[in-house]
Amino acid sequence: MQRAAASRRRPLASRDGRIRVAYVSADFHSHATAWLMAGVFEAHDRDRFDIYAFSLGRNDRSETRMRLEQAFDVFIDAGDKTDQEIAGLLRDLDVDIAVDLKGLTKGARPGIFALRPAPIQVNYLGYPGTMGVDYIDYLVADRVIIPETERRWYAENIVYLPDTYQCNDTARSLPARLASRRDVGLPEQGFVFCSFNGSFKITPRVFDVWMRLLQKTEGSVLWLRESNGSSMRNLRREAEKRGVAGDRLVFAPVWPHAEHLARHRSADLFLDTLPYGAHTGASDALWAGLPVLTCLGESFAGRVAASLLHAVGLPDMVTHSLEEYEARALQLAHDPALLDEVTERLARNRETHALFDTARFTRHLESAYGQMVERHRAGERPQPFAVDVIEGSSP
């Protein structure tokens, strides 16, 4: 375990009772983190919280960036500052809780948190795992992505939210289906299996399953996210080695996010990967109305889609072995009535279940923050805890 260079805790500031929360990220622009979190930043209760942004990345001058700048009480563009300078700003603002939205991903600045600029420090959303350090007090999770039996592998104290750990923004509009499959490069007829996960997540075992599904489903295609040329050539070559024509793999080019969401409606079933599964990709598909099928993994990174499916009322789309996953996918591809039932259930549940209820999620996250602060003010060390469902929260 890496130890902090300066881990001394300072007391919470004394003020009017509002909790000061600073979100630190390099992704406050057109990025998955921003698309998920924007509604939470806006929904925070300003009678109880002051919300700060410390932006470590670029300003892409997008609509997303402009929206985020308006969502915070204070937005600080700090990308050109050193770790020490940013830590000093956090201290000067008397921030109570500093939330690291990057963890150990591209653009991360863990050195800021190693200086212990806030009394309470939290790992959330950007990194699907433990940071393995003693200067991060809590990790926000749920009981699907981190079962109780797995807590011992995490350096942080696990905070369990009642529905799912992943926030979503219900302010975005529901995408309409594009004019035709041809508009998105797909054949007009036939079943469309889809997986918009990064190509690095496609393992031989999962690819074997996908090829068998194509062989057993006449006229079907597999719709993948376009990557580099070598990756696409290799995947087509591997398909042909398994007896599947390479042109049955269709690659979707990079499109703006709204149009990308809309084209999901041209697919029939989203197939997750293993051991590293879909995260924002899964919630994008579900928001667009496309059923997701997953196989429960053994780690945080492989269990996110399962968490989301439970939170949207589709636990039957979570399988527990690749054999079950293959059988379920084949069943859905060959039984239109069954697939229609799942798709219709998703359409209903999307409006009523917890996954896409931004206000409900925010109240539970705020409850977590409040309990962290209460423990600190009482002189107690951070401990794992679970957030209770707040009465009156829908559903």
Please supply descriptive tags for the structure shown above.
395 residues, alpha/beta, Rossmann fold, 2 domains, 8-stranded parallel sheet, 6-stranded parallel sheet, elongated, disordered N terminus
Topology:
Elements: E1 19-25, H1 32-43, E2 49-55, H2 63-71, E3 74-77, H3 83-92, E4 97-100, H4 110-114, E5 120-123, E6 138-141, E7 157-160, E8 192-195, H5 204-216, E9 221-225, H6 229-241, E10 249-252, H7 257-263, E11 269-271, H8 280-288, E12 292-295, H9 304-311, E13 318-319, H10 322-334, H11 336-352, H12 358-377, E14 385-386
Parallel strand pairs: 1-2, 1-4, 2-3, 4-5, 5-6, 6-7, 7-14, 8-9, 8-11, 9-10, 11-12, 12-13
Helix pairs in contact: 1-2, 5-10
